[in-house]
Design brief:
The protein is an alpha+beta fold. The chain has 2 domains: about 1-110, Release factor (Methane Monooxygenase Hydroxylase, Chain G, domain 1); about 115-355, Alpha-Beta Plaits (2-Layer Sandwich). The chain contains 9 helices and 11 strands. The strands form 2 sheets. The chain has an 8-stranded mixed sheet. The chain has a 3-stranded antiparallel sheet with strand order 6-7-8, covered by helices on one side. A hairpin with a 4-residue loop joins β2 and β3. It is globular, with a radius of gyration of 23 Å. It starts with a helix and ends with a helix.
Amino acid sequence: MQELLDRLKDLSQKFSAVKDKLNLEEKTKNLKSLNTQMEAAGFWDTPEKAQKIAQQASHLEQFIGVWQEIETNIRELPDLISMATESELEEMNDEVNFIEQTFSSKELELLFDGDYDESNAIVSIHVGTGGQDAEEFTLWLERMYLRYAEQQGWKATILEESTSEDGLKSATIHIQGAYAYGYLQAEHGVQRLIRLSPFNAKNLRQTSFAKVEVIPEVEDGGAIDIAAEDIRTDVYRSSGAGGQSVNTTDSAVRITYLPLNIVVTCQNERSQQQNKETAMKILKSKLIQIKAEQQAERLDELRGDKLDANFGSQIRTFTLQPYRMVKDHRTDYEESDPQKVLDGSIGGFIEEWLRR
């Protein structure tokens, strides 16, 4: 009993330390204002603007709800624990564990102070060296991010896939959710797989690589002006697996930004025009991020030789042979169960990177 009370006391002190940063009163006022806008007649007449407001309200509602629940539990649980029986204390221990984990996770969001940390994220995965093993590894990573997004309660949409017989050559995923970019920016870099290759007749150890690029979805992309002569637009048939989520008509769009040879593709939308609009939005998001990274005032100041600077070294290694481990080389954080990580449990890696 005393241990649980001590843990709650520690949580109470931590909550008091961050309470002013939460600004719950101001956020509640903002939420009421957004709800009033959404209740107004004709709100959905401009769907794109309405969707942004609705998403902002949803994020605020979630933020306020979680922290209010934490505060309520910290205040009320000590009395319940003091009156609890032995069997009830076991349940109380599970509840305190949950509150501690929730507090630790949500406390991370208070560290987000970047311009786009609250934004949706666009995750692109590209096969690296390693042949068939690298293609399968790229497919594993796509599944890992889809699972992680699902666990976070985010919406993930595959915008583009280029498949192969053994896996995946590339994929682009649009992930919508509170602080999606804030969290997923930790995944930007090269990842490595070491295992005994099932594609090798002698079952030799094989090292393969995949590159992950994470950019924020920038809503003010219209502020960046791209000259018509600087882009080339190609239309092609989807190479994905088909089905409801991927088109099989000649409506997939590939846009190339010629000065830097940046290629963006989209094949998920229902029409060629929608795919083109989505691809252009992603391109503008990329260019805005590159401008910020290179501290350039104009597009014509961007240098292509610096585009891959962030991929100069690997961030993580999945080792399946001779031992089993996943290690982040930036923080030295490790997990001993690679399959669990590949099933989407990457929160530990992300949290450690963010806290560093």
